[in-house]
Model the fold of this input.
Amino acid sequence: MSEIPAELRYASSHEWAKNEDGTVTVGITDHAQDAMGDLVYVELPEVGLVVAAGDEAGVVESVKAASDIYAPVSGEVVEVNEALEDEPELVNNAPYEGGWLFKIKLSEETDLDNLLTADQYQAQIDSE
Amino acid sequence: MVDFGGWDMPINYGSQIEEHHAVRQKAGVFDVSHMTVVEIAGAGARDYLRHLLANDVDRIDPGRALYTGMLNDRGGIIDDLIVYKRDNSYRLVVNCATRETDLAWMESHAGGFAVDISERAELAMLAVQGPEARNIVAGLLGGARADAVQSLKVFAFAEDGDWMIARTGYTGEDGVEIMLPGPDAVKLWGQLLEVGVAPTGLGARDTLRLEAGLNLYGNDMDQEITPWEANMGWTVELNDRDFIGRQPLINQQHNGHRELVGLILEGKGVLRAHQTVLMPNGEEGEITSGTFSPTLGKSIALARLPAGATGKVDVEIRNKRQPAQVVRPPFVRNGKAVYKEV
Done:
């Protein structure tokens, strides 16, 4: 069973989002990292990039495959997790903490309402 | 678990990278029972195989194994296989995905030879690979089988009852491959795991073989690719015998051909099959297998490039050009980096 923290929101494309005063931290879920296997490369967006919800905002690559990362909300990228350049395995080891990917300064508060709750995301995984 | 030629096989049992390191540093076991085992017996077996295979079974003595391609009329590779030579018969181990094609091809060229071709589907196969693999296996087996494991030279084999123990593998490490009855394989598998040998899946099998510079059928070679174009020239014995695909190979040798080389990525990302390789002179090639090398901590690949490729090239990854260095594989042997820049 993969971990799905109740306080986070989720995109159907397996990113999680955590809102703190309008700045949203983004990562990939425990389920996603487990399905990908050992990550060996993470490509992050440039700080300053303006994205709309659903835009491609990065790539994670495991020994097996590459997978696109989509921005779960609209806004400007204000910070990226530079530690991942040398330690992509942080995403495997701590997907909701040290393995976060980037932070977006939210431009559309209502974007968060379009994301899944933990229960809804669990239901999506169960049906896959 | 994935479907692999009709077999349910694990990509990994736990962490693929840990499985990879276990084989490089200690020992891992692969269940490769999906491989197809075929026996060729009869008075015409030698003549038949000298016609069927691009390498020549006369190059080895009984008790030895030989790696070879089986080619079509155009010199393209139908399959790559290992042939084990006994006193009066031969055993072939061919790929699982090509099983039906191979068996049909073998049957269709058996006419005129006194041979009996039979599949040994009841045999399982375990590959135990790694620097400690032979010591561990010998310790578990004891007796004549242990002696065989300890004394076999590289690419030699011994038989004991229904067991065939060969000092071969697909990882670039020392080790053995054992063909044995299914129930014996289940027992040995359990014993190996009990003494700490890592169960290893298809994922690590692929990263290990790629580090070792060994081809994967379907990726690095197929029916449109000749041994010259697949870095398999050393498996072709062009003596005066008439084997299938011989004349096209001679023609291509005169006319020139592409080459399979190694690449090490210097830019960002991971090399993957089918990415385009851009040469400084404007010519292009293609990656046939690519991955992240856990041993080197870099991305590596095999790529088919125009003849004479050397130095730096670019690889197109997600519409960006990333620099890479052309090298001569293997990348890793016996746990150490061994590639040479060319």
User: Anything to note?
Assistant: The radius of gyration of chain A is 13 Å. Chain A has one domain: 9-107.
